[in-house]
Amino acid sequence: MVTLEPPIEQLPCENLIYSRPESLAEIQTHYCPGCTHGVAHRLVAEVIDELEIQERTILVAPVGCAVFAYNYFDFDSAEAAHGRAPAMATGLKRVNPNSIVFTYQGDGDLASIGIAEAIHAATRGENITVIFVNNAIYGMTGGQMAPTSLIGQVTTSSPTGKDAALTGMPMHIAEMMAPLPGVVYSVRRSLHDARHTIQAKKAIRTAFEAQIQGLGFSIVELLSSCPTNWKMTPLDAAHWVRDEMIPVYPLGDFKVAEPLQNKNRSA
Fold first, then answer.
1. What is the mean pLDDT of residues 103-114?
2. Class assignment of domain 37-264?
3. 8 A C-beta contact, residue 129 and residue 211
4. Which residues contact 118 (CB under 8 A, 6 or more apart)?
5. C-alpha–C-alpha distance, residues 201 and 191, integer Å
6. CA–CA separation, 149 and 61 (whole Å)
7. CA-to-CA distance for 217 and 48, rounded, in angstroms?
8. pLDDT reading at 229 higher than 70
């Protein structure tokens, strides 16, 4: 008599818990290893998916390392002249008021050549969202000094270190924007580790929610690493954000309009 063994129980199906957001295109990146632009892109895409606004979102891409940002997102986009993204976003939003319009800008694009466009859009209270990536250097053009470079920071145009007497102090965009009457949300977050990245996503979501509610101008400044131009490993670059950038650019909320305050306590 042959005894049959009971059938081996099948393993439960694997549960997919993390995948590429629908709003993020499936394409190979051009960013350098360790650069956190890709992290910022994913956070934006995840928020757009969660808010279910993909079909009415419009990105205005900058000039700089993120000049090809339109390739990485699966929704409508436009390319602006250097620094003029807020001006283009203003026009797009005014003629398409039901669209969700955001700019994605670096410190060379927004804090230098485009500072006038950014400040005037904020002063007017344009109902747009700005994602501002601060890596304290010009990434695309060869690692020159930016308005956000730290005092003493060595760059290709400040080989002996940035000198405040010659070029001024680091520019604090989030703090500058906060007092303007048209601004409803101005905060700074960082992408140097997992905990802070989660906090950055919450802030990005709040900024988009401000636009959805029609409240006015919102901006999220993100401290980001640039290992290539800082001449560091990705890990050392993340530590440099933590140890050198955050003391100069403190994280926090600099303006949160009353309708957003309860929401933002968890961000």
1. 96
2. alpha beta
3. yes
4. 86, 105, 110, 130, 173, 177
5. 10
6. 22
7. 18
8. yes
In 80-216, which ranges are E strands? Answer: 100-106, 129-134, 183-190
Give CA–CA dist 71/29, Å, rounded: 9
State mean pLDDT over 84-107.
97
Which residues have C-beta within 8 Å of that of residue 121, sequence separation ≥ 6?
Answer: 86, 87, 89, 90, 128, 182, 217
Q: Is 78 helix (H, G, I), strand (E, B) or coil?
A: strand
What per-residue confidence (pLDDT) applies to 246? 98
Q: How many residues does the chain have?
A: 267
Per the listing, tokens 């730290």 go with 150
Q: Is-contact 256 264, C-beta < 8 A? A: yes
pLDDT band (50, 70, 90) for residue 18: confident
Three-state DSSP at 59 gives: strand
pLDDT at 19: 86
Distance separating alpha carbons of residues 191 and 175, to the nearest angstrom: 19
pLDDT at 103 over 90: yes
pLDDT over threshold 60, residue 266 = no
